[in-house]
Amino acid sequence: MDAQIDQQMKIKKAHFINSSIKTNIKKDYKFIKEIGAGGFGVVFETEQKSTGIKRAIKAIAKDRVVDKESFKNELLILRKIDHPNILKMYEVYETEKTVYLVTEMCEGGELFYYITKTQHLTEMQAAKIMRQIFTAVAYLHEHKIVHRDLKPENFLLKNKEDESSIKMIDFGLARFFREDEVMTQPNGSLFYIAPEIIKGQYSYEVDYWSLGVILYVMMCGQPPFPGRNPQETIKNIQKGIFTFSKAGFKGAKDLIQKLLVMEPKRRFTAKQAYNHPWVQQQVSHELMNLRLHDDAIKGLEKMINAQQMKKTMLLYLATFIPENEVTSLRQLFVSLDKDGNGMISLDEMIEGLTGFKNMKHKNMDRNFVTQLFKAMDIDQSGQVDYSEFIAAFLVCPQFQNERFIEEQFKRIDQDNSGRISKNELMDIFHTDTISIKDLDIEELIKQADLNKDGEIDYQEFMILLRDRFADQIKH
């Protein structure tokens, strides 16, 4: 039965994003201050009462949402995406008049203001920022999502004065696309729109043009197609002729010229841009001192034979773990994701893990890494997503923060009984796209329920995560 359950339940990070209808959000979150406002509503800095973790909450007035289908589409996209450089959404609360989106808190402000304040970004700083933006866009396009409004205002710095963790935001104009689809609706922000949007027929390649404009703005401090008024700007974009207002930055110039190409099909893709020598030089610099220790690999071995309940709980923890707890793992993920598409393939994992020079692990060969890859690919998609990657390492003691684990246990244990029941476990799967039967949930509980009382207490939960022997518990 266990093997059958493992095959049936293709669990993803998206399944843990809670949607609470008509729940009082102030029971769970303390609202600290307003940090932004717009036509959609207001953004607040808040604190999760159960954990003390800061979150941003976007309060959207339903009567201000003109296009209800587009708004639903935005929520669907936010649930689906799983990338270290795209803003993470945790929960959705809904009342009669308001929708609240709970996301990670970014304290560094807009990339636009960071560029303006810094005035003269070095090439290294620009490459560091663009590497993150390129991989985020490559990831979206792999999942057939076009953003359609890429600009520095739609990227945030996770931390103040720190360009090492950039987050893409605002999917209001984003949509799913088909490879051969032609879009006609005019979208985007004036200085960043591609010439084919002005013509009225375009596809996902408009994002690549916007990437070229963003890079140009970073290096030159102004847009490549300025104008004294919107009409003049549009004419200049349609001509597609630009010059560089500054000398130097040869590598960046070459990449800009490969992105700001009038013919959409001839533009560099985000993946090609990520793999441009100017960007790869920065990747090498960032990962120069990265090490993978034997203890981590020994811990990963536990994933190979892990049951579905253990994988489910690890992925649940990975969905909510604060980013500062897994900084080294994010760097390792970047090092393995050679093509920059925001996912790790089997070939990338084999090449990456067997290539670590300091590894002494006796089993670090193609067969071992293949087994490890299959175990890490929890949703059996053929790729290891970011949260799956983090989940696999949370099996290792050095990445387990007991306070965080206890907080998440209490979060699942809604009635504060000290035990997770069948209904409480069922409640963490917040999605209509996964079919979980009562029998499946019962089987999951059996995999951790050592005293066979039909529920999981905290000690059993920790034994499940830490892989201690079941006979350590005597009842």
From TrEMBL:
* Binding, ATP: K62
SUPFAM superfamilies under this entry? EF-hand, Protein kinase-like (PK-like)
Q: Which residues form the Protein kinase domain?
A: 29-279
The Swiss-Prot or TrEMBL record annotates one GO molecular function as: ATP binding
The prosthetic group or cofactor this protein requires is: Mg(2+)
The UniProt keywords, alphabetically, are: ATP-binding, Calcium, Kinase, Nucleotide-binding, Serine/threonine-protein kinase, Transferase
Q: Which domain of life is it from?
A: Eukaryota
Q: Which GO terms describe its cellular component?
A: cytoplasm; nucleus
As for family, the record states: Belongs to the protein kinase superfamily. Ser/Thr protein kinase family. CDPK subfamily.
This protein is called Protein kinase domain containing protein
Q: What is the scientific name of the source organism?
A: Paramecium tetraurelia
